[in-house]
Fold:
Amino acid sequence: MSTGTGSKTAGKIFTVAVASGKGGTGKTTVAISMALCAETDVQLLDCDVEEPNAHILLKPSIQGNEHVSMPVPFLDEAKCTGCGKCSGICAFNAIVFLKKPLFLPDLCHSCGLCMKVCPGKAIMEKPRHIGILEIGAKGDVGFVSGCLDIGIASSPALIRAVRKQSKNAGLEIIDCPPGTACSFVTSVKDSDFVLLVTEPTRFGLHDMTLAIKVIKQLKLPFGVLVNKSISDDDCIGKYCSSEKIPLLMRIPDDRSIAEAYSRGVDLMEVKPELKDGFLKMIDAVRAIAEEDGGK
Amino acid sequence: MKIALSTSGHCLGSPVESRFGRASRFIIYDLEKEIFEVLDNKVNMNAPQGAGVQAAANVLIAEVKVVITGHCGPKAFNLLKNAGVSVYLAEGISVSEAIKLYQSNSLKKQESADVDGHWQ
Structure:
């Protein structure tokens, strides 16, 4: 290890959520590079459960699978008094009431409120399969990935299951889904730092500003990494300096990186000289998070 | 027999609303008595999800046997179908015109939803 160490205070987990707003900016590339640079005591969680792909670049050996379900209500018809309270209280319109309730699992968020308000205790829960977890490792890098079943719309429940696999120690890197909706929020929530990976295009800037709006509401410290960087004087750099957002790293726009990616080869293999930059960035991220935590 | 028509207005001269679940109102028309009442659907119009099924429940409670609307998605359609309610499509005409077309058998009965659910 040279100037940067990327290491961490033993015993305490440090979670970096790698997010972007815009898709295709290099979240997975960056998340894997960070994990491979940090080398020890590191875990990578692929929370992009609608299209998990970190395994393609990391090539971990998978040691086990876990099935993930979410509870959905079902009715004991004999006990149902037909009061309709369950339908009236459901915030997600997941219960249609016509003499007896009809449950719509696609709309259910597993809040359990219908069960609680049912005076006849006629509502119970049954598991509904939503996806699987793949748990493994590549060398010393722990790996967990969630894969949502086709046709299932509720990704947050599976993302929470991925994040529950956290080792509660070392450096934890979350490969987040793109966008700014529930799945993004669930992935970045309670992290120590959000690293926004973007590209120097109008689209990259636009979608990053959307993500920043959400992150500010979540009150999380964040910084920016520019991927496919052509010039230090780009729209992202200007935005970051005017908004006083830390711009932590630039990865150059380099055809050899794209070619390696297209073959499923990770960035560290093709550009090992970037390792020092990644380690420095991880240190900077820790410093910012610590300073923010002290506020 | 009562029929429900989705609408953005309050009377028989109002246009048929193209959306079912997110229509502002339903006109519940009694074919025998030739009278109607207006059923508010504002709660479902602004619902984050499940507007179609709750609108279907709404018109089922009003004991209609027919729904005339612009488009109907799979969840609402199946709920209506299972309850024995027929769905007919009409668009760009008034509620009263749609009722006349229905009475003269000029509207086509839908055998399935004509649009996809919102995440399918």
